[in-house]
Amino acid sequence: MLNLLLGKFFDKNKGVLNLRGTWFSELQTPDLAISLKVKETLHYEKTPYQELAVVDTEAYGRTLLLDNIIMTTVKDEFFYHEMISHVPLNTHPNPRNVLVIGGGDGGVIREVVKHPTVEKATLVEIDARVVANAKEYLPEIAVALDDARVEVRYEDGIEHVRLMEDTYDVIIVDSTDPIGPAVGLFSAEFYRNVYKSLKADGLFVAQTESPFFSGKLIRRIQDDLAQIFPINRLYLATIPTYPGGLWSFSLGSKEYDPLRIDWKRAPQVATRYYTPAIHQGAFALPPFVQEILEAPLESEY
Amino acid sequence: MLNLLLGKFFDKNKGVLNLRGTWFSELQTPDLAISLKVKETLHYEKTPYQELAVVDTEAYGRTLLLDNIIMTTVKDEFFYHEMISHVPLNTHPNPRNVLVIGGGDGGVIREVVKHPTVEKATLVEIDARVVANAKEYLPEIAVALDDARVEVRYEDGIEHVRLMEDTYDVIIVDSTDPIGPAVGLFSAEFYRNVYKSLKADGLFVAQTESPFFSGKLIRRIQDDLAQIFPINRLYLATIPTYPGGLWSFSLGSKEYDPLRIDWKRAPQVATRYYTPAIHQGAFALPPFVQEILEAPLESEY
């Protein structure tokens, strides 16, 4: 309904429309929207998996939309990509073989290859069109996708971890929201296969939505992880273009604790948001989030 | 323009309108808007100082709007009110006499009187209608305005600190954005008068806008404070309904450092966001904010 009011910025039948001065709106929840003034619609297509658009916005620069939801923007992507990458990579003392599931824009890969220990980074993205469009329209984000250490595989991440065993030091799940093809990336079965795909001292991180709007989902994921991983933690970061501005990440680890890092051995990587102090601070959960974790488990989420 | 597209939710000529199922939009910057689905418009009036509305929203509950800008919502107010209050009050070892400038909704006062050392809390709010409407429509926020230790004065905060001397342990500036009547609350002259109004070991905090969108303003304020206060720090917190989701607070102190607190003597106060660990973490500035502070000072902001 809001889209009708604002005018949907592209016409599905015509493909790309370039309406200078119009607005894009994302319904972040049924009751909450963010709207960005659009300078130019650079691209629109229907891929085999989703609707994909790249718009250039006044407030946040070039913005990747999947199914009308903001995935990443050139101006604020560093919050998300740094926090989902450097927390696990600095927790592991020697991450050499890294798997990224989703994340076809390349932002996580760009951060992963900043770590000098990394010998191989595999990106498993189901939708080849995301990678192709990121390379064309978001070069600052996709910049490392052609790095010699990076292998891009167009596969279902759920299938990939079903087949792998004792392979990865770190797995990063950079998924869309838990609707459509990404639902399976939020299941206990998937987390068990992630565990199996990790080496004996491996660890993984997944983006796990807003503590403000998805508390029950976070509660259920944390419960699933507690049954699979000996070390299991939640951390938070500000993500300006995501609903509520505050985002959660869930970390499951076989051996290394993100709160017990020998910072002297952590590599110096150039960042705009992440620092060791912010790493520590991200695990300081507000009481309202602690309450979510301590709430009785509900079947519905 | 966006308001036209969405339909302005009230008609100035008619006063209150109750359009069930419509949306309220705030233009957070000229290029960025947040929209909340409105259940009911509870109140609208034009006060001597500003347009004031209270709307009940699906996503954030009852919401106070001043000049069409979200001041506070029942669901997310605790982030802001706790972070602007408990950081300075825990930094001072014995805050007895506290001044709050602005903050007519009462949220800061509610947090201030949680501190057992506080003997007197003075609220200086220019607009009596904000206080009256908060008491009527936002009782969970205004709850402590009738506390015996609280004095509410309907005065200009700029004038108040011009007249006071060596009076307050802690001053909290809970202002609107630096437009209209609040411009003077962001000036070096005001900060000098705040300094003068504080006791010899006093300290103050002000909300100082978004590091994402108001970097130059923050840079200038921090420079002003550095010339007035021996201790001068910036800290950050997530505020879901404010532009960019990340907000800044500037603290100037004559003696006590917010990073050197004896936590054993800090009182136990019930909070939903603030904790000592979050207090510490809030001062861990991301590199992009450090860059703002180290940038050359510009005359225009």
CATH topology of the largest domain in chain A: Rossmann fold
Q: Give the quaternary arrangement of the chains.
A: homodimer
Helical fraction of chain A equals: 25-40%
Biggest contact? A-B, 44 and 44 residues
- Strand tally of chain A: 12
Level-1 CATH class name of the largest domain in chain A: Alpha Beta
What value does the average pLDDT of chain A take? 91
In percent, how much strand structure appears in the residues of chain A? Answer: 25-35%
- The end-to-end span of chain A amounts to 25 Å
Structural class computed from helices and strand pairing of chain A? alpha/beta
Query: Can you tell me the residue ranges of chain A where pLDDT is under 50 for at least 5 consecutive residues?
Result: 1-20
Secondary-structure element order of chain A, as H and E? HEEEEEHEHEHHEHEHEHEEHH
Order of strands, main sheet of chain A, comes to: 8-7-6-9-10-12-11
Number of distinct helices of chain A: 10
CATH architecture of the largest domain in chain A: 3-Layer(aba) Sandwich
Reported for the largest beta sheet of chain A, the result is: 7 strands, mixed
CATH 4th-level superfamily of the largest domain in chain A = Vaccinia Virus protein VP39
* Count of structural domains of chain A: 2
